[in-house]
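Sample intake — Acyl-CoA dehydrogenase family protein
Collected from: Streptomyces himalayensis subsp. himalayensis
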Amino acid sequence: MPHLNPIDALELDNELDDDERLIRDTVSVFVRDRVTEHVADWFEAGTFPTRELGPELGQLGLLGMHLEGYGCAGVSATAYGVACRELEAADSGLRSFVSVQGSLVMFPIHRYGSEEQKQEWLPKLASGEAIGCFGLTEPDQGSDPGNMRTQAKRDGDDWILNGTKMWITNGSVADIAVVWARTEEGIRGFLVPKDTPGFTTSEIHKKLSLRASVTAELHLEDVRLPASAVLPGVTGLKGPLSCLSEARFGILCGVVGAARTCYLSALEYSTTREQFGRQLGGFQLTQQKLARMQVDLVNAQLLALRLSKLKDAGKLRPEQVSLGKLANVRAALDTARTARTILGANGITTEYPVLRHANNLETVLTYEGTEEIHTLVVGQSVTGIAAYR
């Protein structure tokens, strides 16, 4: 009986063009050579070599790769999604670094920034010379950013910012922060260099998830910025929400890689581990788990590919992105948990990747919009009734 290819059972990668396959293979080799062997140690130590890997990722053209000009590669959305998939096959922290840099920092500068801001920051961010972070979430405001407390007030031609941002990826290592604040005219985005007086960060420790990633709190106390620090192209929640939609697209593609890694780990283990005198994969209950994981993986792959094609055609809507994140993150998390049961006690060690991925996916389930928020987005889309409050 012919075997399904467990990596790509429906041969969906045949839908990729030559450039997209090249990016897939290039990222896969990079992950294998530079990340896979070390990431479990980074996770255990709670570290991520940002300054070392940043320029390497920039050299490969992966930072802001879906943007045009200013040193960015300008590849298709499908290629970006495939790159996210191959990055997250190693660890969600690696994909998060690339997502934050490209979709949450470079995208708003590219879309809403002045020409001077673009010229100053985008080439450095694309090369990995500079690292960025995105300041939206606050200690008391996560899913409801419209009620943020961070404020920016005019003082002559300058702005004075006060507030706190929480759970900020790359926050303590970033050279530039895109900070969203409430103003008299609405929510605005500000570019805050790391050495600005009054701007400090504190790294968050004791995490049980996404440990191979730098997470910090941002503190702004009477931070004075010139008028040139404001992103001039947007006012209101449209600004940060459009950035989040970009990042969510990378997530819904990326988690396919995490699910694939967990599935392959369980599949290999089930065909080499023996219990009761036979291979573990020869038992019906194990095959049920493997078959269910294969179906979930294929569904996630199909959804990611379809949404990638819609994005390339300029037809992807935010509620479709919410549907994709809601479905694919849940499928990846369920796959990781099921894979852990096949590995038994071995599954709880960092020798195998499944529980590390499961722990990471607990964070991915929540960030860039919780599962509950995306459920309500989809619910409103199909009923026409908002149910957030």
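Post-analysis note: Residues 9 and 126 are 35 Å apart (CA to CA).
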